[in-house]
Amino acid sequence: MATGQHCVESPSVLLRLEGVEKVYALGDGVEVRALRGVSMEVRAGEFVAVMGASGSGKSTLMNLLGCLDRPTAGTYQLEGRDVSGLSRNELAEVRNRTMGFVFQSFNLLSRTSAKENVELPLLYAGIATKERRERARAALERVGLADRANHHPNQLSGGQQQRVAIARALVNNPRILLADEPTGNLDSRTSVEIMALFQDLGRSGITVLLVTHEADIAAFATRVVMMRDGRVVDDRTQLPLAAVPGPVQNDDAAGTGGAQ
Ligand code: ADP
Ligand code: MG
Asked: Domain total for the chain?
């Protein structure tokens, strides 16, 4: 069945959780059982929206999937390798090679240009200047911001700032993009633009895992996982809505149709 000429490993399951639990110990014997036995598989190229009420365990799940933390019990296999027992340094290595992260608050350095923000992970990785510049430029191009490379965050709209943050997440060529409420600070039209970008990335083979509490946003994913009290209570694939941003609204601009 596997006809992909470039695939040397199984093209199907990218990550697999089995009976994953996460208990936070708060001291004095007080514990929070944030995940209570989560089992799921995600295939390469899926675009998964994780939904659920506040406190249901979404961020805890994302932290485990992103190798930022380890499960208390159960196993996590990433690309066929059990990563649940790795040391912090080993996890960091897997994370840097495999994951890109996007946050609700963008987390850009404010006194630094878009280009330099995107270069930052490469700087940490010890990549030489010339390659850093080229890769940062390519990543900014991929998110449609090549012409804003020298702008600082305060010279960019919220949607543009989030796109810079996505370029930064892409610059290490991750297979998996994890985004916790990436549209939480954006208006609805800009949110749709960001979802269109995620859909594009999904088509290029990147697996996107996104947390959102908005059903309107989850509609753009190929799969919706619903959490409640640390458990997956619903998990379904769907035909995603095509993310096509509507005309510019005039919420914060005088005049009509003034896009820029
Ligand atoms: P969500 O992202 O769905 O709002 P979280 O995964 O952040 O949920 O939290 C799940 C539960 O775990 C909550 O009860 C929360 O208070 C608790 N929790 C999350 N992180 C920690 C932590 N570092 N230490 C202790 N408890 C935590
Ligand atoms: Mg959360």
From this structure: 1
Q: Calculate what percentage of the chain has a pLDDT beyond 90.
A: 86
**33: CA distance to ligand 1 center in Å?**
9
pTM confidence score: 0.89
Tokens describing residue 44: 């390469």
Q: Is a pLDDT exceeding 50 seen at residue 235?
A: yes
pLDDT in tens, 71-98: 999 999 999 999 999 999 999 999 999 9
| Helix runs in 143-187, H state only | 158-170
CATH number for the domain harbouring residue 232: 3.40.50.300
pLDDT per residue as tens digits for the range 13-23: 999 999 999 99
- Ligand 1 centroid to Cα of residue 227, in Å, is 13
User: Would you say residue 252 lies in a domain?
Assistant: no
- Return the best residue to mutate from 28, 33, 59, 103 for the ligand 1 pocket (most ligand atoms within 8 A of CB): 59
The number of CA neighbours under 13 Å toward the Cβ of 64 is: 32
Nearest to 253, CA basis, from 163, 189, 172 = 189
**Could you tell me if 135 and 122 are in contact, meaning their C-beta atoms sit under 8 angstroms apart?**
yes
Q: How far is CA 144 from its chain centroid?
A: 18
18 in a domain, yes or no?
no
Query: Would the pLDDT of 2 be above 70?
Result: no
- Domain of 119 in residue numbering reads as 44-70+85-241
Q: Which atom of ligand 1 is nearest to 54's Cα?
A: 4
